[in-house]
Amino acid sequence: MSRIVKKSIYVVAGARPNFMKIAPLIKEFQKESVNFKLIHTGQHYDYNMSKVFFDDLGIPEPDIHLNVGSASHAVQTASIMIEFEKIIIKEKPSLVVVVGDVNSTIACALVAKKLHVKVAHIEAGLRSFNMKMPEEINRLLTDQISDFLFTTEKSAALNLKREGISADKIFFVGNVMIDTLITNLEKAKKLKLLDKYNLKKNDYALITLHRPSNVDTKENLEKMLNILNFLQEKIKVFFPIHPRTKKNLEKFDLEKNIKDLNIVLSNPIGYLEFLNLMTNSKLILTDSGGIQEEASYLKIPILTAREGTERPITVDEGTNTIIGNDLAKAKKYIEEIISNKYKQGKIIEKWDGQTAKRIVRIIKENLNI
Ligand code: UD1
C-alpha cells in the first residue's frame, strides 16, 4: 500500500537578523497549509538576541533547536553542520530555506545540498565585494549551491549572473524584512518609549555598532567612539549595545571613552521597541545591513559606518550614505541632516509587504505542493 508523504520544508534561523526575515514566511506557509518545520540553530541565544523577537513577531516555538551557541567561525559553523546533518538524514525534507548571510545560513545550506536536498536562499545576490567580511563569504558560497535565489533588489541578479548562476534560478521578489516592518509598524508606533528612555521625537540619533571591522580592534573602536562623541555634541544619542561590542569595550578598557554628554545606553532591545525608536529618530548611525534597508523604507536619514554596502539601492534610492569610520565625513552628513538639507529617498521597487507571498507561490509551483 502506498503511503502519501506530505512534502516538508525546513526553515532555518539562527541569529538576530534572521528572525524578522522568517516571520512573514512562516505566516504565509501556515496560511497556505504548507508543511514546514522551524529549525533554530542557537547561534544567538540570549533573551534579547533571540526570544524577544519570537515574542514580538509571533513566531512559533522552533520545532528543533540545535543549541550551538557562540564559538570561533570554524567551530560554530562546524557545530551547526554536525547537528543539522543528523536531522536532515533522519527526515529528508524536500527543501531547506535559509535567509541572510550569517554562519547558520552557509552551514545549513551546505549540509542540505550535500545530502541532495534543495536549498532556497532568501536575500541572495547581495555583495559587498569585501572578502574580509565573514558575511560576504557566507553569501557567495550559499548562492553557489542554492536552487532558488530570491533577491531583494536589482543589483543582486547582476552579481549572480556574473558569478555564473543561471537566470532561471533567480527570482526578484522584494524584501521579506520590509514585509515584517509593514505588518508591525502600527503596533510599534503605539509603544510609549520616548518617556521611558527620556527622548524627544525627531530629536535624537539611534546608533548600533557590532561589525568585527569596527569593534574587534582597539584602534577602530576608538574611531567609532570619536564619531559617537561628536554626535552627542549635536544631538541626544540612544545606543543599545550589542554583546560583541560590550565585550570589546570592556576588553580594550574603552568604556571610559564614551563621553557622558547626551547619551542613553541600553542592552540590546526587541524588534518592536527598535522599530518604534527608528520611526521617531532624527537620524541613524549604524554598521548593520538590515537597518540600512529599514531606515530607507521609513525615509529616516541613515549613515553607515562601513567601507561599502551590499545593499546599494539604499544609497542610490534610499536614505543611506556610506561614511566608513571617517570623522570628517560623519561631521559633514550629521550637520546636513540636522539642518534638514539631507536627501529624502524614494519608494523602492517591490518593498511592498507582499514578498513572502511571492516566495511561497514560487516554492509551491516549483515543488508541486
Ligand atoms: C552575527 C552575524 C552577523 C550579524 C550579527 C547580528 C555571522 C558571521 N555574523 O554576528 O552577520 O550581523 O550576528 O547580531 O554569522 N553573544 C552573546 N549572546 C548571544 C549571541 C552572541 O553574548 O545571544 C556574544 C558572544 O560573546 C559571541 C559574540 O556575541 O561570541 C558574537 O556572536 P556571533 O554569533 O559569533 O556573531 P555576531 O557578532 O553576533
Q: What's the helix and strand layout?
A:
Layout: E1 9-13, H1 16-31, E2 36-40, H2 51-57, E3 64-65, H3 73-91, E4 95-99, H4 103-114, E5 118-122, H5 134-145, E6 148-151, H6 154-162, E7 170-172, H7 176-190, E8 204-207, H8 212-215, H9 218-234, E9 236-240, H10 243-251, E10 263-266, H11 271-279, E11 283-286, H12 290-298, E12 302-304, H13 313-316, E13 320-322, H14 327-338, H15 355-367
Parallel strand pairs: 1-2, 1-4, 2-3, 4-5, 5-6, 6-7, 8-9, 8-11, 9-10, 11-12, 12-13
Helix pairs in contact: 1-7, 1-15, 3-4, 4-5, 7-11, 9-14
Residues 15-17, 43-46, 49, 70, 101-103, 134-135, 210, 242-244, 247 line the site of uridine-diphosphate-N-acetylglucosamine.
- Roughly what fraction of the amino acids lie in strands? 5-15%
Overall 3D shape: globular
Number of domains: 2
Structural class: alpha/beta
Query: Superfamily at the CATH H level of the largest domain?
Result: Glycogen Phosphorylase B
Q: Give the neighbour order of strands across the main sheet.
A: 3-2-1-4-5-6-7
Radius of gyration: 20 Å
| Largest sheet features | 7 strands, parallel
